Every structure is written in structure tokens, then in C-alpha cells.
Amino acid sequence: MANIIMFCILAVVILGSAVMCVTTTRIMRAATFMLFVLFGVAGLYFLLDYTYLGAAQISVYAGGVTMIYVFAIQLVSKRTLQGLTERVKASRMVWGGLLSVIGCATVILVLLKNVFLYAAIDGGHELPMKNIGEALVGAGKYQYVLAFEFISLFLLACIIGGLVVSRKEEEK
After folding, report:
1. Most CB atoms within 10 A, among 7, 39, 105, 167?
2. CB-based contact 56:65 (threshold 8 Å)
3. For residues 50 and 56, is the Cβ–Cβ distance under 8 A?
């Protein structure tokens, strides 16, 4: 019973913080709400007794959010950080909504193609963690190591791009 109550509390924190992260127009508040989301996910890992994943979630993503704070302070003007200039264009909202729907459809398609979902529904039993781990780091069909490699390259490109943008040009 206590696990269900903790799950409900963490779910409310995660969902509420995620909605606030997406809807706020101030970058520092968005980063703070994102930090709450990541801590909530770490709490779910601890609730499932996956202590390594919970500790990795906190250590990796807390450092990542710290970097977001640093880039936000460097890249955004002082007036924007104070909330004095806030502009939201309707076209950006439309494109953001369209990309969100496409992303949601992609996630649903991946879930429907996944073997784990049907095994859990049909058999009603949990899959061993070994099978899930092999699917995450395997290179075969319906395994995800290539996706993780692309994500790591994409994040590296984002970091390099952020450094290039934040670099101040010297006056000649």
C-alpha cells in the first residue's frame, strides 16, 4: 500500500513539474521544473529497488541541469532572465504542438511494436531485468544501442553548438 501511495505522489510531482516546465516562459524556472521531473523519475527507480539507475539518474541529470543553468545564464540576456521581455509566437506554438503529436505517435508506434508490452499483457508476468537490459544495449532487431549512440552524438553536437554560440567575438 505504501508503494502505491509513493508512486501516486511521485507521479503527481513528475506530471505537474513536466507541465510547468513546458508551459513556463522563463528559462530558469523551466530548468528548475525539469530538475524536479528528473528527481521524481529517480524516485521511481528507487521505489522499484533499482538503486543504481536511481543514483545514475541523479548524478548524470543533476549535472546536466547544472549545465543548463550555466548556458542559460551565459546565452540569455539579463532582461530575459528577469522576465522583462517575453515573446511567444503563434507559429512556434503550432510547430511545437505538431512536433509533440508526431513524437507521441512515434512513441506509441514503438510501444506497439515492442515485444515486452505483449508479453506483459498476455502472460501477466514480469520480464527479467536481464532481457530488458539486453534489449537496451543489443545491436539486433528491435534493440536500441544504435539509438543511444545517435543520441550521444546529438548531445555532443548540442554542447559544441552551445559553446560556439556563447563564444564572444573579439572586436577588430
Report:
1. 39
2. no
3. no
